[in-house]
Amino acid sequence: GGLEVGEVRAMCTDLLLACFICPAVVNPEQYGIISDAPINEVARFNLMQVCFSWAFSVKPVDWALGWERKV
């Protein structure tokens, strides 16, 4: 068997979040999202926590494939 449409969508979503969205959230200056407002250490730490919480939670690809992580 091949993959179902939902599985492909979930994998693409996971890929986009992991490769583009999270890096831009953690380091917005590098991606040209903000340039005029400096981000202090506390704010940057909070941004990293958002991405790390996503990285260690159940991802769309896991849900589509029927996997559940017990945390």
How many β-strands, per DSSP?
Answer: 0
Oligomer: single chain
Structural class: mainly alpha
The helix-strand sequence is HHH
Q: Output the radius of gyration.
A: 15 Å
Number of H/I helices = 3
Shape: elongated
Helical fraction? 55-70%
Query: What is the typical, i.e. mean, pLDDT?
Result: 78
Main β-sheet, in a few words? none
Low-confidence runs = none
How much of the residues is beta strand, in percent?
under 5%
Alpha-carbon distance between the two ends = 31 Å
Task: Offer a concise description of the structure.
The chain is about 60% helix and about 0% strand. It is built from three helices and no strands.
Question: How is this structure best described in words?
Answer:
By secondary structure, the protein is mainly alpha-helical. The chain is built from three helices and no strands. It has helices spanning 5-26, 41-55, 60-65. α1 runs antiparallel to α2. It is elongated, with a radius of gyration of 15 Å. The mean pLDDT is 78.
Descriptors:
single chain, 71 residues, mainly alpha, elongated
Write the layout of secondary structure elements.
Blueprint: H1 5-26, H2 41-55, H3 60-65
Helix pairs in contact: 1-2
